[in-house]
Design a protein that fits this description.
InterPro entries: Calcineurin-like_PHP, CNP_phosphodiesterase-III, Metallo-depent_PP-like. It is a single chain. The chain is α/β, with parallel strands linked by helices. It has one domain: Purple Acid Phosphatase, chain A, domain 2. It is built from six helices and eleven strands. The chain has a six-stranded mixed β-sheet with strand order 4-5-6-7-9-8, covered by helices on one side. Helix 4 runs parallel beside helix 6. The protein binds fe (ii) ion. Fe (ii) ion binds next to loops.
């Protein structure tokens, strides 16, 4: 089956963020998906749906995403609010009480969208309750293929600034998935950069943001001097089958769309 994966929309109903226009960028992504990938089954959005968690931002975001030809699977990032988001978006019946964490049963296997939100913090958390749900869900899946999405990375990605705000209890998370051959891939957001690798034998991919990109680690930078890099946004086309996963990140619009040219080169 085919999925579209987008991350870190940082949507707000008006104005720019760090010289980038979240409405124009999202509209470009929606137009691209509708033109080229309307045959996908879902569009997974791996958190930071809104820049600031307000009812107005989520209402406008939901209106825009209604234009998508395919259903979306919303997730929370550190910028999001579970209750405000859930008030505007339908989530599968499998969703946990109190967390935006759920599974989607597909012919290829299970898509698990995890909730790593720690309210009020940049870093994420994976508490005992969410960990128990994941363990039980993976146990019940037996040997069915599982594709995991989560906002915060459970391990360092070689990005010093972002790695300081990764998932608390990352080791707990990794212990749950380690050794399960049916866990095919981890798809993470949050870092606004492309990174791929393996952790404890499980392959992972981090995806660029729909809105703005974080510079590479060198030359060194910090949040006080942070300026987005001049790199185009990407989404990914994911093929999820019982015995394979392919992830193709691709540029859905030029960098210039929705920018005022203030990024660093
Ligand atoms: Fe983000």
């Amino acid at each position: 089956m085919k999925l579209i994966w987008m991350s870190d929309l940082h949507f707000q109903h008006s104005g720019e963020i760090l010289g980038h226009d979240p409405q124009l960028r999202l509209d470009a992504a929606i137009a691209y998906i509708n033109q080229h990938h309307s045959d996908a089954s879902y569009c997974v959005i791996s958190g930071d749906m809104a820049e600031t968690a307000t009812a107005r931002n989520y209402a406008d975001l939901a209106d825009r995403l209604d234009q998508l030809a395919i259903p979306c699977l919303p997730m929370v990032g550190n910028h999001d609010d579970r209750d405000l988001l859930r008030a505007q978006f339908q989530v599968p019946d499998s969703c946990m009480d109190g967390f935006l964490q759920y599974s989607v049963d597909t012919p290829a296997g299970l898509i698990l969208c995890l909730d790593t939100l720690k309210p009020g913090a940049s870093e994420g958390e994976f508490c005992a309750e969410r960990a128990r749900w994941l363990t039980n869900t993976l146990d019940a899946a037996q040997d069915r293929a599982v594709l995991l999405f989560l906002h915060h990375s459970p391990m360092p990605l070689g990005l010093p600034m972002q790695d300081s705000a990764r998932l608390e209890h990352g080791a707990r998370f990794l212990e749950i998935i380690e050794g399960r051959a049916n866990v095919r891939h981890l798809c993470v957001g949050h870092v606004h950069r492309s990174v791929t690798g393996t952790i404890r034998g499980v392959p992972f991919t981090a995806l660029r943001s729909v809105l703005y990109q974080a510079p590479p680690p060198q030359p060194e930078w910090d949040w006080n001097s942070f300026t987005p890099s001049v790199e185009a946004p990407e989404l990914a086309v994911v093929s999820f089958e019982q015995d394979s996963v392919t992830i193709q990140p691709l540029q859905f619009c030029p960098y210039d769309v929705g920018t005022s040219g203030r990024g660093q080169s």
